């Protein structure tokens, strides 16, 4: 998100990607899910803020202890969805009343950064693979099938994909921030910051959409609501303020998932070609980085921040690398056990020889988006560490080699990754995989691998495959590749093609725990990494890569 939207971090100090603060007159609480049970207390002054773990995010019953009975709770309707507001209202029914208001944090955040202003980039057909006009027809056909007169799009990834545009409004993600109204018939309207609306933009979009200032959206919502036609709104992503404005004007709402999300997740051949190209470029950077790490880690002088800087520098050697795709997770030793750890100058520690190093990172290349995690040895590993690493690897291989009938969802195959850890009475408290965009967001729906992903896989989906294990206070392990869904050899069956091209640290593997099939998969994967990345690197890096990808 843009710096000026990081209100939760401003108020509490917590920088995770999901959380909710409830601030009462005498008490305050930060509600987070299981991914942040270590990070949230570490970043928050727990003498002032109580950290509460919830099952699915949002509030839970402990909210009633934070505010007295009969309280009024203010919320910003532009920051909460209709679904969230309904859930909070139901939870607090008979105890407290929710009241929409102007954002209270903004009133005290006197040095809040301004809204970002960046140039808008248009994707050529060689990168988008489909024209925006073609995409608009598909969405309009979906609206007609549902009897909707229009839809209001609020997710930047949906808007960027639909109109084949990208921007720099958000760190790490090539988003253009704005809104769009797409009618079932006629021309769409795209709402942007007036400072971004140049004649070039108007001309480029002239046959696709009218371009208007974001300030015109409320009046246009009122007109849309008064038209008498049902309006499609996503209750899980649209701001409550938009739903209220439409209903106040008389609209009937069709509450369904954003109609762009599913077609966007089905990458076409041009997008997949770009993703493969991005992973090859990333593979070169990772080979250089992993060689550098092995050469320097035994000296005991590498810091977490230094490791991040080195990895980013290797990626920046490629002129097509635009940015990191998210803030790199660089966790040495015990910090690796914090699932979404973010190193700061305050927490930065030196990697001691023999400790495990976990690095979860990614990049935005002009051709596509990458996300990879590698766990590396900096010295001899313990038997326990090798056991846990191998169980995680077996789970990653199980997903990589899965074949399943069409109609299968991530919720159904999640167990494949966890089974080997479960057999020893341990697990991990995060999803096994999330959707990834094509030069868009590194996290996207509606497909993924965990109990909450019920949407069936389709050809062209790109998903992370990232089981892990975390021992609090000691070390963390995660191995992550990106995969894409492809047709299997059997009719009506699907399987995964691995996109990521980087060695997996064989020094951490307890080879005796691998089956012959698992060893064969790993050897063939490393052969492919050598075949595709080997010719692109030279000298010591090439020699290191040859050893790193040699057969077990």
Description:
By secondary structure, this protein is of the alpha+beta class. The protein has 3 domains: 3-108, Creatinase/prolidase N-terminal domain (Creatine Amidinohydrolase, Chain A, domain 1, 3-Layer(aba) Sandwich); 121-261, Creatinase/prolidase N-terminal domain (Creatine Amidinohydrolase, Chain A, domain 1, 3-Layer(aba) Sandwich); 266-548, Creatine Amidinohydrolase (Alpha-Beta Complex). Helix content is 34%, strand content 21%. The chain is built from 18 helices and 27 strands. The strands form 9 sheets. The protein has a 6-stranded mixed beta sheet, with helices on both faces. A hairpin with a 2-residue loop joins β17 (363-365) and β18 (368-369). The radius of gyration is 24 Å and the shape is globular. The protein starts with 6 loop residues before the first helix and ends with a helix.
């Amino acid at each position: 998100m843009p710096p000026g939207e990081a209100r939760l971090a401003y108020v509490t100090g917590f920088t995770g990607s999901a959380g909710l603060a409830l601030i009462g007159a005498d008490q305050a609480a930060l509600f987070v899910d299981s991914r942040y049970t270590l990070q949230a207390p570490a970043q928050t002054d727990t003498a002032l803020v109580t950290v509460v773990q919830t099952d699915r995010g949002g509030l839970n019953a402990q909210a009633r202890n934070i505010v007295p009975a009969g309280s009024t709770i203010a919320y910003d309707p532009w920051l909460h969805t209709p679904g969230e507001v309904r859930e909070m209202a139901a939870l607090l029914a008979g105890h407290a009343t929710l009241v929409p208001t102007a954002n209270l944090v903004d009133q005290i955040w006197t040095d809040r950064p301004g809204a970002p202003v960046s140039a808008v980039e248009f994707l050529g057909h060689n990168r988008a693979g489909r024209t925006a006009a073609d995409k608009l027809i598909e969405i309009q056909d979906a609206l007609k099938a549902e009897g909707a007169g229009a839809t209001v799009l609020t997710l930047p990834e949906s808007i960027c994909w639909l109109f084949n545009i990208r921007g720099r409004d958000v760190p790490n993600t090539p988003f253009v921030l704005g809104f769009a109204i797409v009618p079932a018939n006629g021309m769409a309207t795209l709402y942007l910051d007036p400072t971004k609306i140049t004649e070039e933009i108007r001309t480029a979009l002239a046959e696709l959409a009218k371009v208007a200032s974001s300030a015109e959206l409320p009046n246009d919502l009122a007109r849309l609501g008064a038209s008498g036609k049902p309006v499609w709104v996503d209750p899980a992503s649209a701001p409550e303020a938009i739903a209220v404005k439409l209903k106040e004007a008389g609209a009937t709402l069709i509450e369904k998932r954003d109609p762009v999300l599913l077609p966007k997740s089905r990458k076409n051949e041009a997008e997949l070609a770009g993703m493969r190209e991005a992973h090859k470029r990333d593979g070169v950077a990772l080979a250089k980085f992993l060689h550098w790490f092995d050469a320097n880690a035994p000296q005991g002088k590498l810091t977490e921040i230094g490791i991040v800087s080195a990895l980013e520098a290797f990626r920046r050697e490629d002129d097509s690398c635009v940015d990191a795709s998210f803030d790199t997770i660089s966790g040495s030793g015990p910090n690796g056990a914090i699932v979404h750890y973010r190193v700061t100058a305050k927490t930065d520690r030196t990697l001691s020889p023999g400790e495990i190093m976990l690095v979860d990172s990614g990049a935005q290349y002009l051709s596509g988006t990458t996300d990879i995690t590698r766990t590396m040895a900096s010295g001899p590993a313990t038997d326990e560490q090798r056991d846990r690493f191998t169980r995680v690897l077996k789970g990653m291989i199980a997903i990589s080699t899965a074949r399943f009938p069409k109609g299968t969802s991530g919720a159904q195959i999640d167990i494949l990754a966890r089974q080997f850890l479960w057999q020893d009475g341990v697990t991990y408290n995060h999803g096994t995989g999330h959707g990834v965009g094509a030069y868009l967001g590194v996290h996207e729906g509606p497909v993924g691998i965990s109990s909450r992903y019920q949407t069936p896989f389709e050809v062209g989906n790109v998903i992370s495959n990232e089981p892990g294990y975390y021992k609090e206070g000691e070390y963390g392990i995660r191995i992550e590749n990106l995969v894409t869904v492809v047709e299997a050899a059997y009719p009506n069956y699907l399987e995964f093609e691995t996109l990521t091209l980087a060695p997996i640290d064989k020094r951490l593997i307890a080879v005796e725990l691998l089956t012959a099939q698992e060893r064969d998969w790993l050897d063939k994967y490393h052969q492919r990494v050598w075949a595709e990345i080997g010719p692109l690197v030279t000298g010591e890096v090439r020699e290191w890569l040859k050893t790193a990808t040699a057969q077990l």
